Amino acid sequence: MSERFETGMKVRRSVLGDEHVDRAEAAKTPLDEPFQTLITEGAWGTVWASDGISPRERSMLTLALLAALGNFEEIAMHIRATARTGASKQDVLEAFQHVAVYAGVPRANQALKIAKETYAEMERSGQKLTATGG
Question: Which of these, 14, 52, 70, 117, is most buried using a 10 Å CB contact count?
């Protein structure tokens, strides 16, 4: 694999956790392997690996973009990642308030509902939450 892929896997594991990445890798098939390589190199090995902004800020941007575009299926995964990136519940609320104003209340409302459910699940499982941002 390429150096960018190696970097991407390292960053992906640091943000999403080994358990998540191991499950995704185990589910990979010949059909989606090129796609998985693309996102590992592009999203994780390039965008998330950049030191231009902090992981906390990147979490906030990612969550806001997912919500604004209505891509709700990845919000829970990125809420769980906030325990590793340093984005707090307040940071997430601030991001979703921006979504409400600039992209629409229904999308922000749905994203906030998913965030609340995911935080509750994290608390029940004893997963560490970030108390304050940055």
Answer: 14
**Pure H helices in 30-88:** 33-39, 55-68, 75-85
Q: What is the mean pLDDT of the chain?
A: 95
Residues 6+ positions from 118 with CB-CB distance below 8 Å: 75, 76, 79, 80
Integer CA distances (angstroms), 60 to 14, 34, 132, in order: 16, 28, 13
Looking at domain 53-133, its CATH class is mainly alpha
| Whether the Cβ atoms of residue 41 and residue 72 lie closer than 8 Å to each other | no
Alpha carbon distance 5, 37 (integer Å): 7
Q: How confident is the model at residue 131 (pLDDT cuts 50, 70, 90)?
A: low
Query: What SS3 class is residue 131?
Result: coil
Q: How confident is the model at residue 134 (pLDDT cuts 50, 70, 90)?
A: very low
Tell me how far apart the alpha carbons of residues 27 and 58 are, in angstroms, rounded to a whole number: 26
Distances from the Cα of 120 to the Cαs of 41, 71, 91, 105, 108, in angstroms?
32, 21, 17, 22, 18
* Distance in angstroms (rounded) separating the CA atoms of residues 73 and 114: 9
